[in-house]
Design brief:
By secondary structure, this protein is mainly α. The protein is built from 10 helices and no strands. 84% of the residues lie in helices and 0% in strands.
């Protein structure tokens, strides 16, 4: 059970980092756009690198062991692009006007006069998106804590502006800093919820084959989030080059850390 509690603690920490965005959204202090741009790019670099170099190969190894070389590779591809398809479907279902993963929807000025309903819909949209992220972090932590820690940090970084997207409209609609903060925090609670529900539903059926599918699917989800959300948002916050510097820096740090932990 020690591994279970460690995985759950990582997931809770990553999810509830929306509280940081909630604080920023209600205190009204300016933030460094370049720093935010670099941070989001860094998060994308970590997630892309760890997905392609660690998580996807782990999924392939499990699937090849279960089905053989060629069928295992086909199952890996199916699961990887299936994960991309799943998160893309969620993006398509959630209206772009309230989808915090759409470029242009986290601009504080644009949301300054938004009503409480907009803030609540944003929180719901966030919860839908954060659900599979929580399961991804949790499963990674159960299987390999060394991989899970940078994944959790990357998810935590990109949850900060998401919390900001919830807190700002709620605060300006109600005038209550407390409501803005708690709605932002609540939106991040979907990550540990996704971890626990996914764990309870899948644990009785967990096998090498299912584990391989889950890992490959997680890799697809993280790559899509990085390309569809993190990098466009990083560009929105700052200059193109700052986002790219962050991306490369995230990949470099992840690469070095994996070599050191090997």
């Amino acid at each position: 059970m020690e591994g279970f509690w460690f995985a759950l603690a990582l997931t809770v920490g990553a999810g509830l980092s929306t509280s940081i965005g909630g604080v920023l959204g209600v205190i009204g202090r300016p933030t460094s756009t370049k720093l935010m741009s670099v941070g989001l790019g860094f998060s994308a670099g970590v997630m892309i690198y760890v997905s392609m170099v660690e998580i996807l190969p782990k999924g392939r190894d499990e699937l090849v062991a279960a089905f053989g070389e060629t069928p295992g590779n086909w199952w890996m591809l199916l699961a990887f692009f299936g994960g991309i398809g799943l998160i893309a479907l969620i993006d398509w279902i959630v209206p772009s006007a309230v989808n915090p993963h759409e470029p242009g929807t986290i601009d504080e000025k644009a949301r300054r006069h938004a009503l409480m309903r907009t803030g609540m819909l944003t929180a719901v949209a966030l919860a839908v998106h954060n659900f599979p992220e929580g399961f991804a972090t949790f499963i990674a932590a159960l299987q390999d804590p060394h991989v899970a820690i940078p994944v959790a940090v990357a998810i935590a970084i990109h949850n900060v502006p998401e919390g900001l997207a919830v807190a700002v409209p709620v605060y300006h609609a109600t005038g209550s800093r407390a409501k803005g903060f708690w709605w932002a925090t609540l939106s991040g609670a979907a990550e540990p919820a996704g971890a626990l529900i996914g764990y309870l539903l899948l644990m009785p059926f967990l096998s090498d084959a299912l584990l391989g599918v889950v890992f490959a699917g997680i890799a697809g989800i993280m790559v899509f989030i990085s390309l569809d959300e993190l990098l466009p948002t990083a560009h929105e916050y700052g200059e193109h080059h700052w986002a790219v510097y962050g991306l490369i820096g995230g990949m470099a740090v992840m690469a070095v850390s994996l070599v050191l932990m090997a």
